Amino acid sequence: MLANIYAAFGMVFDPYVLAVILGSSMFGLFMGAVPGLSATMAVALLVPVTFFMPPVPAIAAMVSATAMAIFSGDIPGCLLRIPGTPSSAAYTDEAYAMTMKGQGEIALGASLVFSVIGGLFGTAVLILAAPMLAELALKFSSFEYFWLVLLGLTCAIFIASDNPLKGFVSLFLGMFIASVGMGNPAGVPRFTFDQPDLLGGVSLVPLMVGMFAMSEVLRFAVSKDFTMKIADGRVGNVFKGMWALTVKYPKSVWRGSVLGTLVGALPGAGADIAAWMSYAMSKKLSKEPEKFGTGHPEGIVESGAANNSALAGAWIPALVFGIPGDSITAIVIGVLYMKNLNPGPMIFVENPVSMYAIFIVFILANLLMLPLGFWCIKMAKRILMIPRGILMPLILLFCIVGSYATNNSVTDVGIMLVFGMLAYFMEENGFPVAPAVLGVVLGGMLEEHFVTSMIKADGAFLAFFERPIAGTLGVVTIIVWLLPLALKMLRRRQAMSPA
């Protein structure tokens, strides 16, 4: 084990890998700081670049860019009242109110410092929990994986969607897309329309680039209001007063870090949901709830810790089970397969050095956030003044080149454009994109494990409940299905009962 850790340090502290981490960190800071661009979009645009990298620098680029983008999304929220990334939206009004009161450096400092603390906590849980879960996962058969995938898809709908019905529609659309091609247990071509390029299914990378990057370009193209008015509040020393906040709100720091890691580990939830849940919990449990919304740092402390701890938490199911914790790890799983680091419980046995290297990169990226984040805050006003009319055409060019480079196929460029338009219309009509992406990633896995299990059981469905772990996961999944119905009936009964 010590030899593996030593080898991992040698891989990470190679000058080339360190240069990749630094470059992707700067890229992530830029992507997060520009409103409308996101951490997911940053990772999607990095995918074509990783084609030419060895496994460790490729994953290091994505880890670094993601961590930085989630933090830097707080900067335009504080200065413009426009969240740079969805995970920053939970406390944008709070941070902007602090800037208007002349406390912008406290708001940005809290976002920076507690993002680092939350990120390091989530990384510690990832390092400890992932190998232990992998040992448990070695006992899994197709029955357990079927229920686990089904539970992940179910949680993605109920947790990540304000409208479960639209979440269902989005999920089934993703599962339909996953059924295209010959990648099914019977090897029968489905929905290919006699197109040879579709026999292998819809390529994941062009689909991701289209749904997360191309859709933003389209949104910019049809929008008429993209003016940016930056707050006049000066930003001084962002580290001043951070120790006082840590001493004053220690429970908030721990609560945000723990909740963020747990929510991040739920398939489909991710940093966005973690930040909203953490901010709501902070307000509910605060001794000064009346101050929330007026420029109070407590919610920023807790949510800032939550959104970055959720990033590491999302890697737990991704590495151990191959089930993405959020849309970012959905893209990363594709890159892991491309680099022959196949996610699953055996990844810690077959590629221990690479796994330790990824853990070290997580720690390094979070520590690097302090100096680079401080620099980005100082440069924020200049970054935000880049005309988006120049930025968006460049992103469109990256989308086209990246999609073509996947398989050197013009069909993939068409797939990127089609799914970009589809994601745009979905979001404009309130249909969440995340369930569709999870449906694409997990749809084939669900079908494969179901068919395999039915063959083993000779068609007896009760076999799905006969093994202890499978039976437990099955019961939990059914409870998750029935719980909303039970709560709805209970509320209806209470409303009908006389006062």
UniProtKB/TrEMBL annotation:
- What keywords tag this UniProt record? Membrane, Transmembrane, Transmembrane helix
Is the Oxidoreductase keyword given for this protein? no
In terms of Pfam families, this protein maps to: TctA
Residue ranges constituting the DUF112 domain according to the UniProt record: 18-438
Report the domain of life of the source organism. Bacteria
**Which parts pass through the membrane?**
59-80, 106-133, 145-161, 168-186, 198-222, 314-336, 356-377, 389-406, 469-487
Q: Which InterPro entries match?
A: DUF112_TM (IPR002823)
Q: Which PANTHER family match?
A: TRICARBOXYLIC TRANSPORT PROTEIN
- The name on file for this protein is C4-dicarboxylate ABC transporter permease
Its lineage opens with: Bacteria, Pseudomonadati, Pseudomonadota, Betaproteobacteria, Burkholderiales
